[in-house]
Amino acid sequence: MNIRLLIPLAACVGLALAGCGTGEWDWNKASAANTLAAYQSFVQNHPNDKHADDARGRILALQDQQAWETAQKAASIEGYQGYLSSESGGSHAEQAQYEITARRRAAAWKALQSDVSAASLQSFLKQFPQGPEAVLARRQLRDFDYRVELADARNESSAEAKRARLQGRYGTLLHEVVVMAPKAPATGYRITSGLMSQATANSTCATLERSHQSCKLIQDPQTSG
């Protein structure tokens, strides 16, 4: 064989082997460093290497972890929303959503404490049916089994007119005024407050009586158990 043909062939083989060796060497080096910069450098220098896809996967994983650590450090709704915006399909997406919901639920529960009523508790549970605050809300709601009866009426239109008048006058105190339909033909409509605890109902009735508004306590048959 012509030796002049072997020399270029040997040179090509040598260069190929050198390239393979460099790629493997750089991959081992990047793996040992295990940093974004190291993997990004590897992909830039060896975009078609057999380890390139693995490097890209590790880049995504490291970016995801860095974003999650940033969110945890912020420990806020905005921080976790930022994580979901940048890593919507990240491995911590479910946990981020949980943290957002937990913080919103805690804030809503704290705000509710300044104006606790059956209506506000029911509204809270509709929005947040799960979680430790929901357990407290259900427990508290069980104590709301009384109403303050304010008036009665023979027909629905008269009852609604009285309800509107009493709502306008005592709405701040009672939270809500409702019309209770008769349970039997011989009975009339009743205009009452929303559900309250017995202690609150007693206190509310005393306040109403000082305003010369008649009232009496009734226990709600649906919750008295």
Structure description:
The protein is α+β, with helices and mostly antiparallel strands and about 220 residues long. Helix content is about 65%, strand content about 10%. A 4-stranded antiparallel sheet has the order 2-3-1-4. The protein is rod-shaped and about 95 Å long.
Structure described in brief:
The chain is an alpha+beta fold and 225 residues long. It has helices at residues 3-33, 36-45, 52-74, 77-86, 93-112, 118-127, 132-141, 156-174, 198-210, and strands at residues 146-153, 177-180, 189-193, 216-219. The protein has 9 helices and 4 strands.
Rg measurement, Å: 35 Å
> Biggest sheet: strands, sense, closure?
4 strands, antiparallel
Q: Report how far apart the termini are.
A: 105 Å
Mean pLDDT score, rounded? 88
What's the order of the H and E elements? Answer: HHHHHHHEHEEHE
Q: What sort of overall outline do the alpha carbons produce when their principal axes are compared?
A: rod-shaped
Q: What class do helices, strands and sheet pairing give?
A: alpha+beta
How many DSSP H or I helices? 9
Instruction: Classify the helix fraction into a percent range.
Output: 55-70%
* Strand line-up across the major sheet: 2-3-1-4
Number of strands: 4
Contiguous low-pLDDT stretches (5 residues minimum) are 5-19
Strand content: 5-15%
